[in-house]
Amino acid sequence: MSLSDPVAALRDALRFSPDNVLLRKHLGDTLMGLGRAEEAESEYRGCLSRSPDDVSLKLGLAQAFYQQGKDSQALVIVETLLKQSNAPPAGYLLHARLLLRAGDLRTAAAQYRAAIQEDESLADSDLAGRLDLDSGATTSRVIGERIRNSIDDEEYDGVADEIDLERPKQTFADVGGMERLKEEIRLKIILPMEHPELFKAYGKTIGGGILMYGPPGCGKTHLARATAGEVKASFLSVGINDVLEMWMGSSEKKLHALFEQARRNKPCVMFFDEVDALGANRADVKQSFGRQTINQFLAEMDGVESSNEGVLILAATNAPWHLDSAFRRPGRFDRILFVPPPDATARAEVLRILLKGKPVEAIDHEHVAKKADGFSGADLKAVVDVAVEAKLREAMKSGKIQPLSTKDLVNAAGSLRISTKEWFATARNYALYSNEGGLYDDILKYLKM
Amino acid sequence: MSLPFDSANPHTERARLLIELDRYADAEAEVYKALAIEPNSSMLHARLAVCLLRRDAVDDALAAARTAVACDPDNSYAHYIFSFVTHRSIDEAGALEAIGEALRLAPDDADYHYFKAAIHYDYGKYYHALSASDAGLALRPQHIGCANLRARCLAEFEDRTEALETIERALALNPEYYWSHETRASLALKWGGFDNAVRHYREALRLNPQSESARRGLVESLKKRYFVYRTLFKLFDWSDGLKIVARTIVALAAVALLNDALRPIGNRFLRLVAAIGLVTAAYSAIGCFTVFCGDPLANFMLSFEALGRRAVSAEARRRSIVTAVALTLTVGLLAAAFFFRMPLVALPAVSAMLAPGPLNFMLRQPSGLPRLWAALDYVGFMLAMVVLFAVLCWIPLAGLRWWRGLVSEYHAALERRAEVRRSMSGA
């Protein structure tokens, strides 16, 4: 036994006390510190077979996966951990790193902020820099302070902040199915981008908006991000929290600043998620400042003060019936696309994409897709997650990685409920009784009515 | 429900706007954030109650509303919300007490008067509801909710002119308010303007496609256009108004009359078995048609027009198809039994007549085991019917046979006696 080699010393100790979880975990941590992630993974697995609910062990295993580049396995563990009430701050940090690798900078930044808020000592100037959170900050303490301030709404001074621009790596190839929608977007957005001279020759401006509506979890946001990736444009994602500030006038200023940011960074795809919250029917919004926001939004879309040339506006909503009809006028959201739950072919395609990089045996994707009739993209993700979690539990007990099978996925699909049913119950009523101008004909067609 | 404006806490304002946008889940999250800053804010607890109520967490909403009142007993809005939640938990006295307290603190708030009227109206106290809505309208003549309730109460008192005037005024004030169209439609339906009712219910649904009461009203007005349905509806209405003893006497009298009326036909064409079948069928026809079949058949008639087809719910449509098929089968089988003198065919005819109830029950069950059990129940029910009919038929036939045997035995005995007498006199 050599004291100069801590790993050897710990292994010797474990030989006498093989069931000592703490000692084995210490060995795993030490191996991780030495960059020997593969060996550490084995030790953490050994610990988890004895103590399967230990959060720190799961986190250790996820870190070992991360260091080996097994991101999908790491993600499964981290996402499960973060669902728990006692999620460790380091879990958020690891999640941020994993999301950064996956190209989802925005969520990564949010997770990094959450980690720092919980535990200041986790601040990582390198990571913050890569997430574009470090401009001007010199120490991690300063970064932490700045992030806390940005989180804390009390400190918001009403001045419009800019949103981090993304350069999404996803393209249409990463979107399963939705061929009709992709074609529409290609015609409306991509071709004008690629052949601007043709459009200018006919006096057509490049820009305008597409509104996507449909049940939640069917890939509207994913498609928007892929659109930006497809045209290699900047992607500015605007959520309700980015705009709905509650001071009089502040919303309008922020909205204007966001459009200006997009205009400065053209070509740029602006994506308004849950746009019904921003552009609600003016009759529904009782307070005057709400109406002002809507009017400002309309003015920005029309490009009253500045041209929107090269700025493409995509919006998504689960409740198009709450959207002010003024948004549907020509030049604004003049293409309104229904994003239905994926059909069987698309479901199989989505499953293929979701299972990429995961340990699988020969999967009959079509069979699983058939069993998952009516499932949205998010439901299919849940199917894969449930199947993976079940396999992971088995693997933790046995210490061996078991590949996912068709049966696992079919069982997982059988255990989940279709999340889109409720949406269609509401949508059906609007399509039947309030279908002015055939706005919801696609819903009726989908429902075969 | 109106939401007062307050701007001190940014989360409070955010929550208020989110509630206004019907995004209750997001609003609830904001309210919790706001409560972290102001844990004793009565207004925030009241808003939390609103959010919780929207996701049907009535008990939690009640607790939040109670806290809102406790935090500031002088906040009339907290009492108003407490009344709102209490009303949802079907506590009339509690709801009235709370709205009374809100009105004591803010007697000039028309919304509170309106809600008091709504509570009274929901419990059928139309006179009190009318007074409260009048009080609300006196404070704010353009209060559309109060005008709607006033019109509905006046309709209950059969004051047609005043009710129509009130609702027309409300519609003139805001023609885009769905509830006014619903009220106008319900008045038209009550007083026989069925096409007008259809028009207003359609408008109400255009403005609020989620209104279940408007959808039901539309279906009802479409059905009321048919004379047969209207007549049957009057019959239900009349029998509903009778006391249980009176209803039983009427039913028994109907059975006796039918039995007497149908027996000669049964005896002439189908003899005993068919007579029993016919009487049972006739009785079932009245019972089934009025209780189970009248409504589904009217729905079936609606399936031949586009508007009716859309308005009738999927469940009601299925029930109507099952009923229509079963009744067609019944009529066909009975006709066959009658014209071709096949008394036993009356048996499946009666079974088909009684089938819609259990069949619809079976189809309402979730697929898989529950539906299988319901189907087995149904098969059991049908077998029981067969046994019952067999017994009903066998007892009279066996009795007749016994009687005939007795009579022929008596005749044989008489014959024997006569023969003996003849032989004795000959000797």
User: Which shape of chain B, going by the Cα principal axes?
Assistant: elongated
Q: From the coordinates shown, what is the CATH architecture of the largest domain in chain A?
A: 3-Layer(aba) Sandwich
Superfamily at the CATH H level of the largest domain in chain A?
Answer: P-loop containing nucleotide triphosphate hydrolases
How are helices and strands ordered from N to C of chain B?
HHHHHHHHHHHHHHHHHHHHH
For this structure, the CATH topology of the largest domain in chain B is: Serine Threonine Protein Phosphatase 5, Tetratricopeptide repeat
Query: Got a strand count of chain B?
Result: 0
What is the overall pLDDT average of chain B?
84
State the fourth-level CATH superfamily of the largest domain in chain B: Tetratricopeptide repeat domain
Give the percentage of residues in beta strands of chain B.
Answer: under 5%
Gyration radius of chain B, to the nearest Å?
A: 33 Å
Task: Report on this structure.
The complex is a heterodimer of chains A (449) and B (427). Helix content of chain A is 56%, strand content 6%. Chain A is of the alpha/beta class and 449 residues long. Chain A has three domains: 132 residues, Alpha Horseshoe (Serine Threonine Protein Phosphatase 5, Tetratricopeptide repeat), CATH 1.25.40; 182 residues, Rossmann fold; 71 residues, Helicase, Ruva Protein, domain 3 (Orthogonal Bundle). In chain A, helix 4 packs antiparallel against helix 5. Chain A is globular, with a radius of gyration of 25 Å. Chain B has two domains: 202 residues, Alpha Horseshoe (Serine Threonine Protein Phosphatase 5, Tetratricopeptide repeat), CATH 1.25.40.10; 157 residues, no CATH class. Helix content of chain B is 83%, strand content 0%. The chains are: A alpha/beta (449), B mainly alpha (427). Chains A and B meet through helix 21 of A and helix 1 and helix 12 of B.
